[in-house]
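Data availability (excerpt). The following record was deposited with the supplementary files.
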Amino acid sequence: MAPEDKLAAARRKALIQKFATHAARRLHAFRDPGVAALSTMETGMITDDD
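Predicted structure:
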């Protein structure tokens, strides 16, 4: 196993926010597929391939 290095606070915060945003979008798409498709078109992002 490779040694674990601590992340800088700013990098850690950015990764956590990205993870949380992705999880929220997936949950939103699961609960309401029609609205999630519209938000995907607006942002130009496809959430399943990230």
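Summary of structural features: The chain has a mean pLDDT of 79.
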